[in-house]
Amino acid sequence: HPQTDMSMHTIDQAKNMRNGINLEGEVVRKGETRTVSKKTGGTIDVCDAYLKDSANEEIKITLWAEDIEKISQGAKIKITNGYTSSFKGEISIGKGKFGEIQVLP
User: Fold this and answer.
1) Can you tell me the distance from the alpha carbon of 62 to that of 35, in angstroms, rounded to the nearest whole number?
2) Which among 37, 17, 27 is positioned nearest to 96, based on CA atoms?
3) Of 5, 12, 57, 86, which is the most buried if we count CB atoms within 10 A?
4) Is 23 exposed, middle or buried (0-12, 13-18, 19+ CB in 10 A)?
């Protein structure tokens, strides 16, 4: 069910949350796209970028497949129902199965 409470979180708040994260920010850096193998077989493209919010906090964001094409450096984006994961001590945010990333006009 879509959450009715559409309040936005800050990156600072998001880093302490597991899921249900709503975030807006600007893509300030975008890395190289790489191809990884899926557990289910086949491959998928993945790309790391960094998102900055209005408080100048930054968080790593993982972009998959069609989102890589859709989101360019400098774009303002909105993540709805995102989740965080931690890898080697660095927290990153992604949209997961139930989330959505929109490019803002």
Assistant:
1) 13
2) 17
3) 57
4) buried
Reported residue count of the chain is: 105
Q: Which of 70, 51, 62 is nearest to 10 (CA)?
A: 51
What torsion do the CA atoms of 97, 100, 103, 105 make, to the nearest 10 degrees?
Answer: 170
d(CA 35, CA 49): 15
Q: What is the pLDDT along the chain (105 residues), one digit of tens a residue?
A: 454 556 899 999 999 999 999 999 999 999 999 999 999 999 999 999 999 999 999 999 999 999 999 999 999 999 999 999 998 999 999 998 899 999 999
Its pTM surpasses 0.70:
yes
Within 10 Å of residue 93's Cβ, how many Cβ atoms? 24
Determine the Cα–Cα distance for residues 20 and 22; give it in Å rounded to an integer: 7
